[in-house]
Amino acid sequence: MTERRTHSNQHFMLIILQVLFTSDDSGQLWNSCVWDFSTGTGLMQYRGGSSGAHSLSLLGNDYLIGGGGQKSVVNVWELQRKDQNQIKIILPGKVNCLCPSPDGNYCIVGIAEKIYIWQTSSGNLLKVISRHYLDVTCIRFTDDGSHFITAGDDNLVIAWCLPRTISSTDFPLSKPEPKYVWTGHSLPVKDVYVGSGGVRSRVISSSLDQTCKLWDMTTGELLCTFIFDDPIMSVYMDSAEFRIFAGSNTGHIYCVNLYGAKLQKERHITNKSDDEGISIYKGHSSKINCLSMSMDGSILASGSADCTVKLWDVYSGQCIRTLDHKGSVTNAFITSTPSNILNPDSKPFLVVQHFKRHLHSTQQQLEGDNSNQTDLIHMKIRGCKRKSERTSNTDINNLIQSNVSVVNQSDVDVIEAHEELNKLKSKISKLKNVNKELYDYAVTNIVNKV
Q1: In sequence order, what are the beta bridge partners of 236?
Q2: DSSP, residue by residue, 320-346
Q3: Which residue from 85, 81, 22 is spatially nearest to 50, judged by alpha carbons?
Q4: Rounded distance, CA 14 to CA 274, Å?
Q5: CA–CA distance, 158 with 251 (Å, rounded to integer)
Q6: CB–CB of 115/132 below 8 Å?
Q7: Model pTM?
Q8: Can you say where the WD repeats lie in this chain (predicted)?
Q9: How far apart, in whole angstroms, are the C-alpha atoms of residue 32 and residue 274?
Q10: Strand order in the sheet with 56-59
Q11: Cβ-Cβ contacts under 8 Å for 341 (sequence gap 6 or more)
């Protein structure tokens, strides 16, 4: 019986080359579900809580990670497990969005307006970035994992170099500088798509200001602005980057052809479906939360707040299948079938640890350095005792003090930085008091007398 089941799983793996992962905000039936979108059959379910928008992703080829909802928890499931046990990781706050690196070694999470970077194998918190002014709404990686893009309700789209960002962990007070800060949007940015090509890829962002903007990662320039009649909630491009798909808050999906059009900085997209190079997919009754495409670019998947996922034939614009959900669909993405998703005998290659809540450089690293220095002190003391059994306690104390001074010397830069920060805070407090006194004087002696 077991051999027959294993053979059946292998048979499925040979046929099902791509699968669809979906989630909704209800969490009644499951957190997320795996579908064979060619037949509409549910293959696997992962239970436990719910995942918010832009908060469900594959972690390498071994795990499924989901966050969001109303709790400060991230759930991690082994893809091949059947018992539905998952790792629950407690985070410092509610998850707005998350995105693992393509190799699964790092996981970047947006909590409020801050960006947290964790190393998955050790659970170390490598960096906390405070560059956005309002909540972070979306995080995306380039396909080579060298850069990541963040977008937020502060209308900003920011490109970061991952190696430069995490290389500053030895200096906790330092602020990593982004590669680009794109300020073209005038209202909150709701979605970002990063094309193929690594550092030479193109990035497109969608916003409530009714525009999608196409950026060049090589130069940082704005290539084109697409202006729609509706606020755009989600955006996607096919693998060849011939078309842009924009999901609006009215339920319409705009398909805009990039080839054959004249080179221009702005393109106006209207609701008239007879415009050249533009088509509109109509079928959803509420806003489009997420978009994804099959690898051959023939099938488009759309998740909506109307509790449905629809599959569209790109060339005809017809809806070929509808998958009903119990709540507003928060995530829907098509991916190549992980090799171990239907193989219960496979074991994860990656190791995932619970995420720590304190910066690694300010806690574990200093503790490790201090323990190394302590071991060195004991070695020197033992060496002195071997040379002479008459070594006095005074000599040993002097040796310990000299080594402790070396240990403390390694923290001088951090201490000085804290002192400088305290001085600046004191100056700011004094300036605020002076400003308040001037305000009170003006109100009492000038405004009231008038």
Answers
A1: 245
A2: EEEEE-SS-EEEEEEEEPPTTTT-TT-
A3: 22
A4: 41
A5: 28
A6: yes
A7: 0.76
A8: 129-160, 182-225, 281-322
A9: 38
A10: 56-59, 63-66, 73-78, 86-90
A11: 19, 34, 43, 44, 79, 80
Beta sheet of 106-111, edge-to-edge order: 95-100, 106-111, 114-119, 125-129
Give the type of residue at 64.
L
Nearest residue to 344 (alpha-carbon basis) of 80, 84, 86 = 80
pLDDT per residue of the chain (450 residues) written in tens, 0 to 9 = 444 444 444 444 446 889 999 999 998 889 999 999 989 999 889 988 889 999 999 998 889 999 977 788 999 998 887 556 678 999 999 999 999 999 999 999 999 999 999 999 999 999 999 999 999 999 999 999 999 999 999 999 999 999 999 886 555 556 789 999 999 999 999 999 999 999 999 999 999 999 999 999 999 999 999 999 999 999 999 999 999 999 999 999 999 998 876 777 899 998 875 667 889 999 999 999 999 999 999 999 999 999 999 999 999 999 999 999 999 999 999 999 887 776 777 777 888 899 998 887 544 444 444 444 444 434 443 444 444 444 445 554 554 454 444 444 445 556 667 777 787 888 888 888 888 788 777 767 765 565
Residues in the chain: 450
Residue 218 backbone phi and psi in degrees, to 5? -75, -45
The structure tokens listed for 79 are: 């893809």
Answer yes or no: are the C-beta atoms of 129 and 165 closer than 8 Å.
yes
Q: What's the CA gap between 218 and 214, in Å, rounded?
A: 12
**What token pair was written down for 257?**
């052809």
Distance CA 335, CA 446 (A): 69
Between CA 231 and CA 70 the distance in angstroms is 26
Q: What are the structure tokens assigned to 334, written together? A: 């098509």
Can you tell me which residue has the tokens 């829907």? Answer: 332
Hey, what long-range contacts does 89-96 have (CB within 8 A, 24 or more apart)?
A: 89/354, 89/355, 90/354, 90/357, 91/67, 91/116, 91/355, 91/357, 92/116, 92/357, 94/68, 94/70, 95/52, 95/55, 95/67, 95/68, 95/69, 96/52, 96/54, 96/55, 96/68, 96/135, 96/136, 96/137
- Alpha-carbon Rg for the chain, nearest whole angstrom, is 27
384 φ, ψ to 5°?
Answer: -65, -40
Here the tokens at position 239 are 């693998």
- DSSP character for 359? B
